[in-house]
Amino acid sequence: MKTSALYLTLFLLTALACKDKLDKSCDANFLEADINNVFWQAEEVTGFSFGVGGNITIQAKANFGQVREIGIQVPMDVTTGTYQLQTGVFLHSIVVAPGAFQAETGELTITVHDTTNKIIKGTFFFSIPSEGLTVEAGSFCAKY
């Protein structure tokens, strides 16, 4: 009986921990992903925009792992939806540093774009085969 209760408690705690990862609000800017199967979380995330009809940029930095920075750029008028990432196309792009390598394939999904409160939230995955990078389960939220 004690063993069953212990397993149930562990299951519930695991479910709550996973729920927190999935249901993050945008009280504070965040960006996280699994890079080559290793969890990566930005230590600093900044969102900013450039002029009317310009772009929104999310810049995420961390001082660990082989990736030090992930930058996401979308047009100011981006709407919710899923966008394909392609090398050489900067309309919707993700750049990885050091080295400023652009995502070669992948998707960026915008789940929230609140232009009144200047909040953008979404998910992404991409790869840069030429650099041996695979990024999965990415999520972000930023005020710009």
- The gross shape turns out to be globular
Major beta sheet summary: 6 strands, antiparallel
Residues in helix, %: 10-25%
Could you give the count of β-strands?
A: 11
Describe this entry's structure for a reader.
This protein is mainly β. It has one domain (27-143). The protein contains 1 helix and 11 strands. The protein has a 6-stranded antiparallel β-sheet, with no helix packed on it. A hairpin with a 7-residue loop joins strand 4 and strand 5. The longest helix has 21 residues, at 2-22. It is globular. Residues 1-23 have low confidence and may be disordered.
What is the gist of this entry?
With 144 residues, this protein is mainly beta. The protein contains one helix and eleven strands. The strands form two sheets. Strands 2-1-11-10-9-6 form a six-stranded antiparallel sheet, with no helix packed on it. Strands 3-4-5-7-8 form a five-stranded antiparallel sheet, with no helix packed on it.
Which descriptors would you attach to this protein?
144 residues; mainly beta; six-stranded antiparallel β-sheet; five-stranded antiparallel β-sheet; globular; disordered N terminus
Describe the secondary structure blueprint for this structure.
Layout: H1 2-22, E1 30-35, E2 38-41, E3 44-49, E4 55-61, E5 69-75, E6 81-86, E7 93-97, E8 101-102, E9 105-114, E10 119-128, E11 133-143
Antiparallel strand pairs: 1-2, 1-11, 3-4, 4-5, 5-7, 6-9, 7-8, 9-10, 10-11
